[in-house]
Amino acid sequence: MSSRGLAMAPPAKNVVVYRNGDPFFPGRKVVVNQRRFLTFEALLNEVTKSIHAPLAVRNLYTPRHGHRVVELGDLQDGCQYVAAGFEKFKRLDYLNHGRKELRGTRKSEGLQVSPCADCRNTDLSHTLGCFYCSVFRNGDLLSPPFPLLLSKSTPVQWDALLATLTKKADLHSGAVNKLCRLDGTQVSGGEELVNGHYYVAVGNEEYKKLPYFELLVPQDSACRSLWYVD
């Protein structure tokens, strides 16, 4: 290629990509230039590998408003984007690792939901007086599990827990009526929840036995007990 051709080539763009629905994923830097990515699909394939997505990335969205990016030329240097498959855009505060979305407590009901990101480690969560569960959505193999932080010092009120799960899961079928283990057995009370374990939020429909863990938790994660990758 001539020096004139190199000079006329569009400059590379540095962008940061987050994982859709993952409140703790810190983002991955991707350098976009037309010599490396001839098509938008080629970029999506690279992003799939870069962020260790459980399923192929097929869409990029702006992190605040969820506007869809449709071609390479739409990307802006120094900006952030959210990578998703065919599932809908999950509205979180990605630029702050989702902590604003998860911040808050319901002390009056004995339920505490993710007030601090440092409790992502299950051993540390025990030290700080709380424990973590991760929850899948029944029949949904596109959305990663969401974290649920519970207080060890206050008994969980089951109705309050189901109300919180309803809000966080946003099931197509409506309210969460039960919580199941991955083998389909139903959890009947907060005392049965185990730190670091995975569960499935279920509405009025039957529990759908699917490979949630195998498909939605990164295989190369340093700690597969939580949806988090350094």
From TrEMBL:
Listed A to Z, the keywords are: Repeat
Q: Which CDD domains match?
A: DCX1_DCDC2B
Domain spans labelled Doublecortin: 13-95, 135-213
UniProt-listed Pfam families? DCX
User: Which Gene Ontology terms of cellular component type are present?
Assistant: microtubule; microtubule organizing center
Question: What's an example Gene Ontology biological process for this entry?
Answer: intracellular signal transduction
Name the species this protein comes from: Fregetta grallaria
Protein name as annotated: DCD2B protein
Q: Which Gene3D superfamilies match?
A: Doublecortin domain (3.10.20.230)
Q: InterPro entries under this entry?
A: Doublecortin_dom (IPR003533), Doublecortin_dom_sf (IPR036572)
